[in-house]
Amino acid sequence: MGEEAIEGGCNCGKVRYTLESPPLAVAVCHCTRCRRQSGSAFSVNLVMKARHVRIEGELSAYDDPETDSGQPVKREFCGSCGSPIRSTPSAQPALVAIKAGTLDDPARFAPGLHLYTCSALPWADIPEALPRFERGPTA
Ligand SMILES: [Zn+2]
Ligand SMILES: [Zn+2]
């Protein structure tokens, strides 16, 4: 690739990952489930081909049945420290979301779009210049 490796991991260091390509997209998700899982107002997701994500260490998983899209999502996190790492939609398992805040260099990829703005908190600023979707990108 010639570029610097894209790496990240959890807070305690037991889970580390390498992304073998830059993200296809960087999406801020305002859905209620991402909000609760992240413990923040929204989550920032690196949309990746599943096969371009290499994970080292044990991930714990929660199959989230009550997503805003209606499709279950497998949410994986470090079982020791709880950092969320990867989400896999059951409807489209070839594409996964890596939680951008877990990158070693989280400034590297800026968000390019906002999803589930129907659930966005009133004080969450969404830049006018970015594409926004009330729900998923195809809705
Ligand atoms: Zn950890
Ligand atoms: Zn979401």
Automatic annotation (TrEMBL):
The keyword Metal-binding applies. It holds the Pfam family GFA. It comes from the Bacteria. Keywords: Lyase, Metal-binding, Zinc. The keyword Zinc applies. GO terms for molecular function: carbon-sulfur lyase activity; metal ion binding. Residues 6-124 form the CENP-V/GFA domain. InterPro entries: CENP-V/GFA (IPR006913), Mss4-like_sf (IPR011057). Belongs to the Gfa family. This is GFA family protein.
